[in-house]
Each structure stands twice: as C-alpha cells, then as structure tokens.
Amino acid sequence: MLKRILIVDNSSVLAMRVKALLELIGCEAVLCHFSEVEKILLEQSFEMIAIAHGIPITLIEQIKPFLKSVPTLLIAPNSQGGTVIDSFSDIYRLLPDSQVIYPFYDNKELIGILEGQLMMNEDEVEILLPRILLVDSELDKLAELETALKGAHIDVVTATSLKEAIEQSIAYKIDILISDFNLPHCSGIDVYRKVKGINPDCRCLLITSEALQSTLIEAIRIGVDDVLEKPLDQSLLLQSVHKMWQTELLKRNNTELVERLQDTVDALIEKDSLLRVIYKNTPDGIILFQKSGKVLEANDSCSSLFSVERDKLVGHSMYDLIDRDSVNEIQDAIAMALHNKQFHCDLSVTNNLGTVIPLAGSFSEIDFHGESAFAAVLKDVSHLKHKEDLLREAKALLEHKVQSRTAELQAAKEQAEMANQSKSEFLANMSHELRTPMHSILSFSQFGLEKLSKEPIPVDKLEKYLSRIETSGQRLLSLLNNLLDLSKLDAGQFPFNPSKQEILSIIRTGIEDVSGSALSKSIQIRLNESDFSSCYLECDASHINQIIRNLLGNAIKFSDANSFIDVILRKEQNSVLVQIKDSGIGIPDSELEHIFDKFAQSSTTNKGAGGTGLGLAICREFVSLHHGKIWAQNNSDKGASIFISLPINTTNQTLSSEILMS
C-alpha cells in the first residue's frame, strides 16, 4: 500500500522537488496550499506531513494536534532575508522534533532523509528472506544443510539430482542455489545453468572439496557468486548467504528505482512539454520578475503586449514596461505580500501607437531557486472595458428613460386624479343642475293642476306657473345640449360647416341672444368696434355664435349687478382677436389653463354659482376646429378677460380636410 504524504506548500520550488522525490520512492504525495490544509487534515489521514516555509504561524498552532502522531518535515527557505528566517525560526520553535531539509541538499541526501523518516514511522519492518534450493546427492549432508538454514528461518527446498533440481525450480521461485560441485552425473555448474535458465535472478553458491583455480575461474565465468570448501562451516555459510541476498536485494531495489525514475522522468517530460506549449501559446502574458522589477522569464504574449522582443525582455525592468500608476499599485501590493502571497491589480500599458491597453493582473509570490520572485498573469481586458462602457451608457440611458417615463406616469396620474376630481365635481353639479329645473317643472305642474280644479280658474297664476315651467325646461334643454355637443366633439361627429361669414355680425347676434340675461342684472354689454373694420372669415357661424353666447353668459353670471362687460375686437396681421372683459371676481392664476378642461370650474366660482363646467370646454373645442386659440387672463384692476384668436386666411378646403383627418 502506498504511503500518503501531505505537503503544505506556499509556492515553494523545494516543495515541488520533495513531491517528485517522494513519488520516485513509491509514495503518494498530496500537495496543497496552506489555506486548504485544515479541511484536508479533517477528511484524510497521512503517514508524514511536510511543511514549507512561509506558512502563517497561527495556522501551525491550529494544526499542531494533527502533527503529534506522524513524522514532520520542515522545508527551510534559502538564506535571503531576516524576516523570512525569523518566520521559519518561529515555526521550528513550535515543532522542535521536526526534521529540517534545506535547499542545498542534493537529491540523494533528500531521498535518504525521506526514507529514514518513513521507516521511523513503521511499527514493524517486513524482513524479506530468500528461498534456497539445496542440491546434494548425499542425503545426510543435504539434511544437515537444510537444518542449518531452516534454523535461520529461511525457506528451503531440496533436490538430490539435476532432474529434481529442475522440477523444484519450476515449482518454486528460487532466489539462491546452494549445490555440491561434484554430483554423480553432472556438476554444480550444470545445475546452476539449468536453474538460472528457469529463474534468471537466481544466485549461486557452490560447495567443493577441491577448490582448484580452474574450477573457480569456470564458476566465476558463468556467474557463480561464491565457492565454499568442505568441510563446511555453517556460520561461514550463513554469512555468504546473507551477503548474496543483500546484494540481490540492492540490485532489485536499484532496478525498481531506475524504473520509477524513468517513469517519473517520462511523466515530467510530458508535463513539461504540455506546460511549455500552454506557456508559449496562451493569449495571456505570463511573466516572472524579482521584487526589484527585473524580468526573469516571459512568454511570447508578453513580447507582443509590451512590444519588446522576447530575448530582450529577460533582464529588462518590469516597471519600465507599464504605466507609472500601475507601478505604484504593484509596489504597494508587494509591500503587503508578507501577509498576502497572492494579489490582483488593474494595470495599463501604452503601446507603440499610443493606445492605452487595460490589463487585469494576477500575482503570486513564489520561491524561485531559493529566492523570492513574483509570477504574474496579465490579461488584456480591452473588450471587457468596452463592454463595461457600453453597459454604463445603456444604464444611464435606461435610468433617463425610467425617470422620463416615471415623470410621464406621474403627470398622467395627476391628470387622471384631476380628471377624476373634475368628474366627481361634475356629477355633483350635474345632479344639482338636473334636479333643480326638473323639480321646478314638476312642482309648478302640480300647482297648475291644483288650480285647474278650483272655480273660477286663476289664469294669472297659471300663466306664472307655465312661465316658470318654460324657463326650467329651457335650462334643462341647454344642459342636455351641452352634454350632447361635448359628446359629439369627443367622437369627432359634431357637424362642422364653414363658410365665408362677417365676424362682426355674428358677434352682434351673440350679444343680442344674451341681452335679456344682462338686462335682468342691469349689466351693460359694450361692443368696442371703433378700431375694427369689416372682416370676413371662413367659419361655422353657429359655432362662433355659441362661443360668444357661452363666454358672455359666464361673464354675466359672475359679474356684479349694475356693471359693464366689454367686447373688444381687434384685427391683427393674420387673425381677428376678440376679447370679452368682465368686472367680476376673476380667476386664480394657477387655474387659468385648467378652467378650459372638461368638467372643470374655477375654485372661486364653483360654490353656489351653478353650471356644469362644460361651457368653456366646448368653446375650446370649437376654437380648435377653426385652428384658433383661446385663453384667459386676469385684468389689472378687476375681473378677467377671455381672448379668442381666429385666423383670417384659412380656407374652406383646409378646414374641411382637417376635420376629416381628425
């Protein structure tokens, strides 16, 4: 079973060397970064633990309980700085029984130390003894040798002839052949040749009564390891067997070691080739440099990135290749490297064309032949920066759109709330406007019926009741007409018949239509036409008349008794301007636009004045059909003015086409 060794590393070259040697002598070496050691020790068991220098002393204290039951190796740093040596000394003081290995040890010394440490951990060392084939034609001597060897706990098989020796060699793996030199039908050399043909690793000891020089030469020539003379000393026999067996074991170990070494070398060559291909062809720059900035190694991508030939990069200063701000950032990070062996920096390089190339650098401090160095992987992130800029722009645009949309939604919400409030107010007013004339009609109808049942019939009373019924009916009819007009305007179905009309006559007609209402409040309507000459417009006379009636009706409703209403006409460059000026209570400035909305009424006039808030909305729709404008403005002294601007040159055809399009 393979021995499992844990190596706690901190980017040390010597730790990698120890790992390779452990695998060479048949161990399973697990190399881990010190940040993962606690988890691994909790989940797995090991026969030995090796700790590289640079491991935080606090971590050593935490894992110390795991180190009591197994041998511990400490991988020392190269003599390079007081701080590193002091840190390693602190580790050694915590683990004084550990074996220390130094960078200047050669591989042979390291293997000896590793094997010694592993042997110390074995409770029982397995002793491998040989199997011996004894060949002698004399049974008593054969039994004597067998007894002596078995007394040394050696496995022994015997044979009395060449034939039996061959049979035993086939049946068993023979490690050592001990044979009498002179057998009845052959010699011990003949037996050795046959046995060795079957067991190639078999060694041979011959016993002879006459140690002739020619006999010895022949024995040595065919590979016999030793020749002993009779009478045989058993102690001398055991010494010779031990010597041969130790030689054989050493040979076998060396052969196994050479095979492992060759396998390891082959694997290292394959890995080295793969790493070199990756190192050479990776699109990211890989560079190794000292703390001073001196470049020790760099790949082809670095040459392309820095616009420097690869051969000239080695020996060059890393800090001369990058921008000044990047140099400061790296040096600050290196200054903290004692506590953080790995760090990341965003760098920038200016190429020959003056283009700044952003880089993402990943740095690791490593042990390079006993010296501290830094390996860096530099990745060109230009495309990522471009994408970040695009995302940033898209985010800003999206935020602007969201804000704009939010403002629109807020405005729509406020408009909807205003419309809802106006509608509620409209429904409240409508209820009053419908109920009041309807109640009047029903009440006076009931009164009339009651008077008809009496004699004589009071005609004057009936006339009064019928007059009230007619007034309420006209009021109710006006309200319904306004609702129907607005509905038709919204649906685009209101009749629109423009023709050439004289504007002054239309306005006079409108004034006459409301003169009765003005007279009831002793209000005088004054038409100011002194600066106005006759003017013809393409318009719908009924629309303009209704606009004038609606505006004058509002002015009469909200003006005091015994006051004046002025209707002023002016001709401008391409339009006619009509101003209806009252001396009433005016309109709050914040509501000058709002009063033209549907169902809207001024906050100063919607208390007890009646009305549905439809008149001005209908006026605006009619003015829009004529491509005109209507607006309100408070007078400087008292009251408010409504202005109507109507174009002069708009033709019948244009108006007709516009209404069809709408």
Could you name the key traits of this structure?
5-stranded parallel β-sheet, alpha/beta, single chain, 662 residues
List strands and helices in order, with pairings.
Elements (H helix, E strand, L loop, with lengths): L2 E7 L3 H12 L2 E7 L3 H7 L4 E5 L4 H7 L8 E4 L6 H13 L4 E3 L5 H14 L10 E5 L3 H13 L3 E5 L2 H10 L4 E5 L7 H11 L4 E6 L4 H10 L3 E4 L4 H48 L3 E5 L5 E4 L1 H7 L3 H4 L10 H12 L6 E9 L5 E13 L2 E10 L1 H71 L6 H33 L7 E4 H11 L1 H6 L3 E5 L7 E4 L1 H18 L5 E8 L3 E7 L33 H11 L3 E6 L5 E8 L4 H10 L1
Parallel strand pairs: 1-2, 1-3, 3-4, 4-5, 6-7, 6-8, 8-9, 9-10, 17-19
Antiparallel strand pairs: 11-12, 11-15, 13-14, 14-15, 16-18, 19-20, 20-22, 21-22
Short characterization:
The protein is an alpha/beta fold and 662 residues long.
Q: Given the structure, what is the number of helices?
A: 20
Question: What is the percent of helical residues?
Answer: 40-55%
The assigned structural class equals alpha/beta
Anisotropy-based shape:
rod-shaped
**Adjacency order of strands in the biggest sheet:** 2-1-3-4-5
Detail the poorly predicted runs: 120-125, 650-662
In terms of DSSP E residues, the strand content is 15-25%
Main sheet specs? 5 strands, parallel
Arithmetic mean pLDDT: 82
Secondary structure tally: strands:
22
Give the termini separation.
95 Å
Radius of gyration, in Å, reads 59 Å
Explain the overall architecture.
- The chain is α/β, with parallel strands linked by helices and 662 residues long.
- 50% of the residues lie in helices and 20% in strands.
- It has 20 helices and 22 strands.
- Strands 2-1-3-4-5 form a five-stranded parallel β-sheet, with helices on one face.
- Helix 3 (57-63) links the parallel strand 3 (48-52) and strand 4 (72-75).
- It is rod-shaped and about 185 Å long.
- Residues 120-125 and 650-662 have low confidence and may be disordered.
